[in-house]
Amino acid sequence: MGQKINPLGFRLGTTQSHHSLWFAEPKNYSKELQKDEIIRYYIKNYVEKNMTYSVMELIRIEIEKDVDLTTMKIYILPARADVFNKHYQREGKNLQPNLQKKFAYVKKKKGDLKTGKDIYVTPKFNLTLIKIDEPYRHANILAKFLSAQLLARISFRKAMKKAIQLAKQANAKGIRVQIA
Description:
alpha/beta
């Protein structure tokens, strides 16, 4: 049995970039990585529960950390372009304050230990929602399309040809389809 590697590893630097951009001390690396996963999980759940009218699919979340600011780019596939702007303003404006409340932490200083008061520090988040215009350039969307076609009892050869055709129309750099 051969060694398997994540496909993102092959594509880094050529067609894709890292999903997290930050540096950390070796002893703090695992904590920062866990924070990233918790943030991604929270955003994914929030979008699935609260942004159902404006967002059809969450493509990817990029996290970039500076010393005091965390910048997040959320790539989404809108349900419909005309509905997205109207519903996004109503549904998406609460995401940033909810993130700041969720990830606020308690920080005590030596002078405050006598008074026993907790100091809550809210991290600074900068969120950007980016609409994807060509959905069939992304593997997740093509895989969901293929699974829907197969569940609808369409022959697998037709479904594969249609997926390849959709990827070509979206100017994808390449496609490989394998169904087992």
